[in-house]
Specification:
The complex is a heterodimer of chains A (about 220) and B (about 240).
Chain A lengths: L14 H14 L1 H33 L19 H27 L2 H9 L4 H39 L2 H4 L17 H29 L2 H6 L3
Helix pairs in contact in A: 1-5, 2-3, 2-5, 2-7, 3-7, 5-7
Chain B lengths: L3 E14 L2 E14 L3 E5 L6 H8 L7 E6 L2 E2 L5 H10 L1 E4 L11 H12 L3 H14 L15 H12 L6 E5 L7 H18 L2 E6 L10 E6 L2 E7 H13 L1
Parallel strand pairs in B: 3-8, 3-9, 6-7, 7-8
Antiparallel strand pairs in B: 1-2, 1-4, 4-5, 9-10
Helix pairs in contact in B: 3-4, 3-5, 4-5, 5-6
The chains are: A mainly alpha (about 220), B alpha/beta (about 240).
The complex binds adenosine-5'-triphosphate and magnesium ion.
The site of magnesium ion (MG) has 5 residues of chain B, from helix 1.
């Protein structure tokens, strides 16, 4: 019926272009990016402070000091109280839910943008990659700041409980005392916090972005926020 | 034989909402010729936007086939559909749909980035297109810093970025005042005349009548009638004479 060339296949974007577009998007949306990142920071700060506080308690109890708030009855043989486990689990849940929620919100308000990019020729994979890059960056920076704030909080709390002894016995590095519980050390806790924050942010953003990218553009563009 | 760009065969679109099925398109058959300026008219809810989405590969029909340049759209791969949207069609929407994080320039260059055009060539082209739509002095403004008419001009420049053979415009003047709307229509008509771009436009806007080659009246998801330009002119004359 017609003489025009058959429709070609869409090409993949070079990685640098994707990187550039994602940074531009973070920069112009700076205010909104900060709010999303703050969600990650808060979650990780809470988790890391509880966790580090626990590490500090372990280390100083190991050294024979007693915190004024941890009474003997609460402390199990291994040095971790059930209250501490409860706190850690709770903070983990708050962190996961908080980050997933803030990423989901950030993606949902961009459905229209996703649909528009597809109208202009974006492949589904590009959309996912864009959100992967943005959320990876936000996740890492947010979680790092959060982990540092959390550690600072735990140190202040430790100072109140143990005074300057805290620094003498500070559990910076992993340790395995002969008859005590394994201690991760503050550095590992910070590292784990950063990794967790980044993974949560990336999953929390890429998964909804992937679902939006798979929608026909007409549907993605219909969503009003 | 005339050169057919778009052909729909018994296109049906149903929207499912719970147990309800809404038949937005009820078997649409139209043929659109290369270089034509076609207006889809019809009351609100008649299915114009739905048909627009089917022709532009922005959604899939429930039944029936859409052929563009002789290609059955339902047989294309994901990559081919993306390339089709990128190269063959320029979309213009009622609500502009500009990316608000990108400047006028950034919006116009994006389809060229997707097409793999070099940075230098796309900057040059973006400047040329923005100049052509009369925004030469606002190239780096963000959409939020532009008026409605100016935003629609950016959208038109963006739609032309990869030299499409079809322009799909869904009520491009609906959010604009009469004079600005007129300017936008003239701009689209000029592209149609000078570059031979096929224009398919959904509209309520009677100003669109006298630039159209044919008008397709849509009602309740069906083509009610198709009028040619000469018939339109007579009718407009009659209305004017009343
Ligand atoms: N995604 C959707 N889900 C459910 N119903 C839909 C959807 N999109 C459109 N419809 C329905 O399909 C019918 C046709 O809608 P469409 O948007 O095509 O009308 P239209 O002719 O463009 O109207 P308008 O002039 O107001 O833009 C309407 O009854 C509408 O409610
Ligand atoms: Mg409509």
């Amino acid at each position: 019926m017609n003489q025009r060339a058959p429709i070609e296949e869409q090409i993949d974007l070079p990685f640098v272009e994707s990187l550039r577009i994602s940074f531009q998007s973070l920069k112009i949306r700076f205010g909104r990016s900060i709010i999303t990142t703050a969600g990650i920071t808060l979650g990780i700060a809470f988790l890391v402070s509880v966790w580090t506080n626990n590490e500090i308690n372990l280390a100083l109890q190991e050294s024979g000091r007693q915190s004024q708030i941890n009474t003997f009855e609460e402390t199990t043989q291994q040095g971790i109280s059930t209250k501490d486990i409860w706190l850690i689990v709770m903070s983990l849940i708050v962190c996961v839910v908080g980050i997933a929620n803030s990423m989901l919100m950030a993606v949902t308000e961009r459905f229209r943008e996703i649909g528009t990019m597809k109208c202009l020729g974006a492949l589904d994979g590009f959309v996912v990659r864009l959100f992967l890059l943005e959320s990876g960056f936000q996740g890492f920076s947010g979680a790092l700041i959060g982990a540092l704030i959390g550690t600072l909080g735990a140190i202040l709390l430790g100072l109140k409980d143990y005074g300057l002894d805290l620094f003498y016995y500070f559990p910076l590095l992993p340790a395995q005392p002969e008859d005590g519980a394994m201690q991760l050390g503050v550095i590992v806790v910070i590292l784990l916090g950063c990794i967790l924050g980044m993974i949560l942010a990336v999953i929390g953003s890429s998964f909804p972005a992937w679902r939006a990218a798979k929608l026909p553009p007409a549907e993605a563009m219909r969503t009003e926020v | 034989m005339a050169d057919i760009v778009v052909k729909t065969e018994d296109v049906v679109k149903e929207y499912r909402m719970g147990s309800n099925v809404l038949r937005a398109l009820d078997g649409i058959n139209i043929e659109i010729l290369r270089g034509e300026y076609i207006s889809l008219m019809g009351p609100s809810g008649s299915g114009k936007s739905t048909l627009f989405n089917m022709i532009g590969a922005l959604d899939r029909p429930t039944e029936g086939r859409v052929y563009i340049d002789g290609q059955n759209m339902s047989q294309l791969s994901q990559r081919q559909i993306a390339a089709f949207r990128c190269h063959r069609v320029g979309y213009i929407f009622q609500s502009y749909n500009l990316l608000h994080v990108r400047s006028a320039h950034g919006n116009v260059t994006l389809p060229m980035i997707f097409a793999g055009v070099s940075e230098r060539a796309r900057n040059e082209k973006a400047e040329k297109l923005l100049d052509m739509v009369g925004l030469g002095d606002r190239i780096y403004h963000l959409p939020d810093e532009l008026s409605g008419g100016q935003r629609q001009r950016v959208a038109i420049a963006r739609a032309l970025a990869n030299d499409p053979s079809i322009i799909l415009a869904d009520e491009p003047t609906a959010n604009l005042d009469t004079i600005t709307g007129r300017e936008i229509i003239d701009l689209i008509k000029r592209l149609n005349n000078e570059q031979g771009v096929t224009v398919i436009s959904a509209t309520h806007d009677l100003k669109m009548l006298d630039v159209s080659d044919r008008i397709v009246d849509i009602r309740d998801g069906l083509v009610e009638r198709i009028r040619n330009r000469d018939e339109i002119e007579i009718e407009v004359g009659e209305v004017g004479g009343e």
